[in-house]
Amino acid sequence: MDKFTTFTGIVAPMDRPNVDTDAIIPKQFLKSIKRSGFGPNLFDEWRYLDHGEPGMDNSNRPLNSDFVLNQERYTGAQVLLARENFGCGSSREHAPWALEDFGFKVIIAPSFADIFFNNSFKNGLLPIILDADVVDALFKEVEATPGYSLKVDLENQTISKPNGNDISFDIDEFRKYRLINGLDDIGLTLQQVDDIKAYEAKRKQQAPWLF
Amino acid sequence: MAGKTLYDKLWDAHVVRDNGDGTALLYIDRHLVHEVTSPQAFEGLRIAGRKPWRVDANLATPDHNVPTTTKERHSGVEGIVDPISRLQVETLDQNCEEFGITEFKMNDIRQGIVHVIGPEEGATLPGMTVVCGDSHTSTHGAFGALAFGIGTSEVEHTLATQCLVQKKSRAMLVSVDGKAPEGVTAKDIVLAVIGKIGTAGGTGFAIEFGGEAIRDLSIEGRMTLCNMAIEAGARAGMVAVDEKTIDYVKGRPYAPKEEYWEQAVADWQTLHSDTDAQFDEVVHIDATALKPQVTWGTSPEMVVDVSSKVPDPASIDDSVKSDGMKKALAYMGLEANTPITDITVDKVFIGSCTNSRIEDMRAAATVAKGRKVADNIKLAMVVPGSGLVKQQAEEEGLDKIFVEAGFEWREPGCSMCLAMNADRLEPGERCASTSNRNFEGRQGQGGRTHLVSPAMAAAAAIAGHFIDVQDL
Asked: What is the ipTM of this complex?
């Protein structure tokens, strides 16, 4: 996983609550046995006017010009601004894969569904929870200002607005540490091999039917 | 000191190491594997040169992609028409073979939806931690287990270490008090719960379901209930162990054998919240007032009684919520204030990890018996949850009841719950479905899903529109 570094990126607004993972990446694309290449099918049913299937040449497909990510002002967006309960539904990690492959690094919302939230950190995608009124104000500013960008500094846990005002955000220390250092979770857990073996030995005594 | 909740007990018994920051390394007793969320995890193991930590803790089966028509199914994996689905099923077979993981392959009688076969085999036991790369893993909480869905990175992590780093959730008790009326099933109860607390109401919580109406449910009913905890935002749902739980488990292939049975039962009997346990939140629902439920929108929280009307966004002050309702009504092709019983349907789907067990089959067959599917129904399909459910249903003659009434009787799999195989809705088609999600496009692009119980789905098939099963 790449290290998460401070960046300034264009913000795209996704102005609806309960955006589910079926919308983020429809099921037909889950048939892939790879981890990459989902970006062109991010929000496929909203983004294109035709029905998408794996293996299509997406560059020739008719775009839905009303869809936010198809609007020129949001080209190259790296920050997705969203409403409550973003990422609800299925556990598919293809959702953060698709967002990350598209180019997003940060998603800001008043709340996230638990599994999506958790999956995002495993892929270098930072979900940031802000108060609903702060998110609401950001929606208004983004819509009023073409090219609206935010600077996201994970080390200092701040988001800087174009006018210089900072918003601070909370994050688990351990998750922050892993993102900043681009660490592999499995490698970290395998440093605790002795603990796992000790647990198994004890558990075998207590509940032998589980082994 | 206050007593422990069931969730506390399950959590504490599985802590390998407490990280002191609200997270812990948790030991995983059972890992269920299917073809969609595992290929990248196995690939990760291969790249890093890692092996599964404990092969016998894993059990795999293909379910999401498998065809459900007998003709396509009987030609074997090579006969799967969609080449990309075929590759995914083949990849699971290869990975299980390479890493030595037990797999119930596509045409094994024990194959089925992963959340049906775990309990059926006794591979899900009380007191276990159960994970799977599928959000409906919450199903297994019905046994007094801690069960939750994970993403592919955590599938790989579980394979490699038999552990997961998890943050402890807060504990919520949903108490469904009193007796549920005739015709109100586990599905109606859980839809009513989601309607009350909302699809994000359980976010950050592990939900324990309690109360008289829950104790009255069969184990299969409890599975339906816990299955949809995730639709209320909770990764885990659970029900305390009682005699029904223990009776259900006894004698199943993976259940403890005689030498350990008594010891296991004694342990399982402690799996309930202490009377003085403190929950972070408690929600009460009056079961006696419940009616069969029907969803009208594109989120499971958009649900009403069958006797109600489609809600009116104009009556809602919150603009974000009201806009969401308008978008949902537009997608669903519905007008506000339409009586639910006036909504006609095109297709009926009885199946999915929520409602494809033998009791679901029986409930639907009871309604279908001696009746005919209405002329306006283009397709009514019944998809049993496993080969063994199918076999049992056929022994009871349920398949004949369905076929005589005009339903199709299919081979086991996830099928039209998420339409990864060929079973799907066409744009604009409306479906009465016993599945768990009515999201836009879930059952096929442009498809319109109404979630109901198996009896209510069968009743809609017979009437051609929604109807209280009691009024049929």
From this structure: 0.94
